[in-house]
Amino acid sequence: MTDLAARLAAVIDPARIRTDADSLQQYGRDWTRYYAPAASAVVFPRSLGEVQALVQLARAERLALVPSGGRTGLSGGACAVAGEVVVSFEQMREISDFDPVAATVRCQAGVVTESLQQYALAQGLYFPVDFASRGSSCIGGNIATNAGGIKVVRYGMFRDWVAGLTVVTGAGDVLRLNQGLVKNNSGYDLRHLFVGSEGTLGLIVDATLRLARAPAPARVMVCAAPALEHILLVFHAFRARLTLNAFEFFSEAAQQAVLARGHVRRAVDTVTPYYALLEFDAEHEPAALAAFEACVDAGWLADGVISQSDTQAAALWRLREDISESITPRTPYKNDVSVVISRAPAFIAELDALLAREYPNFDVVWFGHIGDGNLHINVLRPLDMDIDTFRGHCERVNSLVFDVLARYQGSMSAEHGVGLLKRDYLPVTRSAEEIHYLRGIRQVFDPDGILNPGKLLPAAESA
């Protein structure tokens, strides 16, 4: 046993401490591939008491801790790159305290998102926050990044479903926040500080989450659009006639990446530069068809298909949800930005021209949750270019992209978080005054800076 493992064994069973090279590699990184993992150990707590004891030990011995769930993040927020101890919550996966009257349930941090969704359905209810990584991502990480996903346009972000939290702060204190209350107007709601905090204020141990009514049967429609600016016109046309569960878009380049894997088929025969994917309750199908016809007449859509079964609906969703996995071999450099939706058409037009000018030799894949103003821009690494050179090119253009974004008062991280990858760009979205207060908040909750150091906030001289 190494010296570090022996020290950790004072609070964690040695059988749940790993220091082997494979574990350090596996648990030391997330889906970001721009950082070499360099964890010193991985621990697997099983209780609130163990988490608290671990933080208290880390504070006493100046050990840096990196929380870890499903490690599906795309900003380096779960990467351990400087000898940190990774705290994996994968052995804390209990779902309990279901309250059918309040429609709430308690989940430990390591509960996989899809497991919660299946549990809710078994109770005749629904957990509506959804994304492609549902089978791997964990509740603690979802909360820590305020995950959004594919149904924000109807159901909102993860924050909207958090009714209570149990956290261990960087000072080693246990906080039980809100505890499922609907009304609790008793001062500052600290719960919301931890949603989106990326593990820099405390370790989320469990959460009380709200559930929704079981959804009605749904239909999925995929439509072919001749131009990117038509997508938002289509969104407005449909939203004026019916309630949408989801409104997504993707480019032909994105679809080609998915189709190349051979597991799904093209949705429509007509090939256009962009496509919209819509989901709505089946009862709205007549209104949706009327909206579609109006968009075709206006020249905004060239073709479309509507699902006739759950199987077909799932296959249509694969065209959108499988994009990230399909382009992973090209080590994409991702920008996850958002603007107020009324400003999106002008922003998209300006950004599209900029990317075409600055990336003439790179493949750029567009997709995203355009119904809530969120765009995912993925620049694909040429197979003959090394990662460091490619990243250098992308970061040069980033400054131009974020100059445009700042003029539109948008966010440089709509839902993926800040982590390591976007930390130095935080001033694009946050003023120097805001960052000053954010540092002050972090100092209160983590006075020794042991929790996820180096993440979220830029160095003081960069602010």
Description:
Helices cover about 35% and strands about 20% of the residues. A hairpin with a 4-residue loop joins strand 8 (about 160-170) and strand 9. Helix 8 runs antiparallel to helix 10 (about 285-300) and helix 13 (about 345-360) packs antiparallel against helix 14 (about 385-405). It has about 475 residues and is of the alpha+beta class. It folds into four domains: about 5-90, Uridine Diphospho-n-acetylenolpyruvylglucosamine Reductase, domain 2; about 95-215, 2-Layer Sandwich (Uridine Diphospho-n-acetylenolpyruvylglucosamine Reductase, domain 3), CATH 3.30.465; about 220-325, Alpha-Beta Plaits (2-Layer Sandwich); about 330-425, Alpha-Beta Plaits. A seven-stranded antiparallel beta sheet has the order 15-12-14-13-17-18-16, with helices on both faces. It has a five-stranded antiparallel beta sheet with strand order 5-6-10-8-9. It has a four-stranded mixed beta sheet with strand order 1-2-4-3.
Q: Mean pLDDT across all residues, rounded?
A: 95
Our measurement of the CA-to-CA distance between the termini, rounded to an integer number of angstroms, reads 42 Å
Amount of beta strand: 15-25%
User: How many structural units, i.e. domains?
Assistant: 4
Spans of at least 5 consecutive residues with low confidence: none
- The CATH architecture of the largest domain: 2-Layer Sandwich
CATH topology of the largest domain: Uridine Diphospho-n-acetylenolpyruvylglucosamine Reductase, domain 3
Helix percent reads 25-40%
Assembly type:
single chain
Keywords: FAD, Flavoprotein, Oxidoreductase
InterPro entries: FAD-bd_oxidored_4_C (IPR004113), FAD-bd_PCMH (IPR016166), FAD-bd_PCMH-like_sf (IPR036318), FAD-bd_PCMH_sub1 (IPR016167), FAD-bd_PCMH_sub2 (IPR016169), FAD-linked_Oxase-like_C (IPR016164), FAD-oxidored/transferase_4 (IPR051264), Oxid_FAD_bind_N (IPR006094)
Family: Belongs to the FAD-binding oxidoreductase/transferase type 4 family.
Cofactor: FAD
